[in-house]
Amino acid sequence: MILIQIIELITLTWATVMLLRFFLQRGGLSVSHPLAQLCMTLTDWIARPARKMIRPIKGWDTALPVAAFAVLLLVQIALLVVRLSMGTTFSPAQIPYAVANALLYLTLSAAYALIACLIIQMVLSFADPYNALMRTVSTVLAPFTRPFRFLRIGRIDFSGSLIFIALWLYTGVGVPYLRYLLRAWLF
After folding, report:
1. Which terminus of the chain has fewer CB atoms gathered within 10 Å of its CB, N or C?
2. What's 90's DSSP letter?
3. DSSP label at 152?
4. In sequence order, what are the beta bridge partners of 157?
5. Closest to 156 measured CA to CA, from 134, 126, 132
6. Which residues, in sequence order, are CB contacts of 23 under 8 Å at separation 6+?
7. In 3D, which of 46, 104, 39 has the Cα closest to residue 76?
8. pLDDT tens per residue across span 138-186
């Protein structure tokens, strides 16, 4: 059971890096930036072949999230096979559960990537507010923080804090509850 959790954690971390790369590319971060280089090093093994099959749509590099979902789904199916080999009985509901679980992990990875962007923005706003990464992260977060700009008091903007709390609640409460409901509904 611990091995399965470790595999899911590694896969979730990788998918988070993949979606962070997606967000940073969309925000316009230069490929020569060290964070972009790190993301590319960790994810190029699947991003390059995926781009040959999946073309961008309206400037969005759709190959990255599709590839992340594909890997998450393959891992969920592989874990299903491992559980079956350990003696659990097969139920037809396990297939849609694996697909839904992979989709939940994709949204969880996106939430973690956005949390990483919020943390980067917070640190850079004090350390180096004119950094290229700060502009990129602000561009990525703008659609989420724009409705809450009324929370700005002087130079301090609390809109990111509200988004952070919402994402934190989604990752800590929402996803486990959705997995519980999914399991109760299918099994």
Report:
1. N
2. P
3. E
4. 152
5. 126
6. 113, 114, 117, 140
7. 104
8. 999 999 999 988 888 877 788 899 999 999 999 999 999 999 999 898 8
